[in-house]
Amino acid sequence: MTSITLVAPDDFDGFRVAARALIAAGTPPAAVTWRVAGGDGDLFGGDASPAGAAELRVPKAFPDLARRVICHSDPERFALLHALLVALQARPKLLEDSADPGVRRLDEMAKAVGRDVHKMRAFVRFREVPDDRGEHYAAWFEPEHHIVRYNSGFFTRRFTTMRFSILTPELCLHWDGETASFSPGATKAEAPDGDPIEATWKTYYASIFNPARLKIDAMTSEMPKKYWKNLPEAELIPDLIAGAGARVQTMLDAGAERPPATTIDGLRAEASACQRCPLWQPATQTVFGEGPADAALMFVGEQPGDQEDIAGRPFVGPAGQVFDAALAEAGIDRRRAYVSNAVKHFKFEPRGKRRIHAKPDTGEINACRWWLDAERAALKPRIIVALGATAARAVTGKAVTISKVRGVPSIQADGSELWITIHPSYLLRIEDPAQAAAERVRFVEELKAVAARLG
Q1: Global confidence as pTM
Q2: Do 141 and 81 share a structural domain?
C-alpha cells in the first residue's frame, strides 16, 4: 500500500504531482491511501515515493473540475480524482458521459463547492476593527468545504484597497492591500461582534424590505438559516416576516398598486437582486447603467467585463478607456450621458485564474431587455447609441448586421433616434495597425455626428 500525504486539504498542486508519479509507476488507485498533513509532512509519506512523472492526457474541463473537487470536504475526493485520471487515459471523452457514476459524483461535488463559494461571497459581513496601521476590517464565516484559498482571489480583487481578514475555523485569509497571506483557523470568539456602521446597515435593510414580494421558501433557499447567526441583518428577519401580512394589507387598504420602479435609482436598487437569467450566479454583482437621470444621450454596450464586474460600473476597463478617449475627441462629455449595457451581469469562461469574456446568447439578452426597456422609459433619451451587435439587438429586438446600418440613424417607436456603431472593444482586437487606426477615425466621426445631432 502506498501512502500519500498532502500538505493541505486543498493541495491541488501536490495532488497533481503525486497522481502523475503514481500513474507513471503503474500504481492502481486501490493501492493508494491519501492523507492530509495539515501543514507539515512530506508530499509522500509512509512508503517510498513512486519515481518519474507521467505525461497525462486530460480534457480541458478536467483541471477546473479537479480544483473544485479538491476543495470538497469528502475524504474520498483524492482517490476518486485519481481513479478518474487513470480512466481518462483509456477513455479521453469519459467526462462527457454524465451517466457514469464516478463522473456524476465528482460533478455533484464540484457543484457543491461552487454553491459554498457563492454563499461565502454573498454572506461575508465585514466589521471595522482598527489597528495601529489604521482602518482594518474582519469577518467570520463557516464554510462547508475547503474554499478559503480558492475564493481568496475574488475578495482581494473586490476589496483591493481595503485591509481585511476573513476568519474561518480552518484557515484565515489576510489582505494588507498588496499581498494575501493565510494563517491557521480561528474561533468565533476572535471575530468582532459589531461596529458603528452596523446600525446604519440594519436601517437600510429594513427600509428596502418589500412585504409584498416576500417569498419565504425562495429566501431561505438563497439564504439558508444556518448563515443567519453571522449576518447582522438576519436578526431583523423574523419581525419583518411576522409583520409582512399586516403591511401588505395596509398597502391594499390604501389602494397601493405596487408598480415597478420608474426612476433610475429605483431600477438600480431592484436590479441589484436580479435573477432573471443564470448569469447572476457566477458574477460578482449587477452592473447597472450610470449617468444623469435626465440624460438626452444614452449609450448601450454589450455587457460588463472583468473590471466592470469588480468595480460595479460600466465601461471602466480597457474598452472603457478607448470609449472615453473617443468621446473626448468627439466633444462628448461622458458625465452628461447615460452609459449602460444590454446585459447587466458578466458572462465569462474561467481560464485558470483569468475570466475570459463570453458572448451573451439570445435568451440572456432577452431576459435583460426588461431592464434596458425600463431604463429607456425612465430616461426618455433623445438619442441612443448602440455599441455593437448585441446592443443593437437589445434595443431593436432583432438581429442586426452592423456594416449595413452603421452610422445611419433611425427613429424608434418611443420617438428616440437610434445610431448603431461598433463596440470599442472591436478596436482592441484589430491586429493590423493601419486598419485599427482607420476604424478608430470612423468611430470618432460617428460620435461627432451624434454630438452634432444633440446640438
Answers
A1: 0.51
A2: no
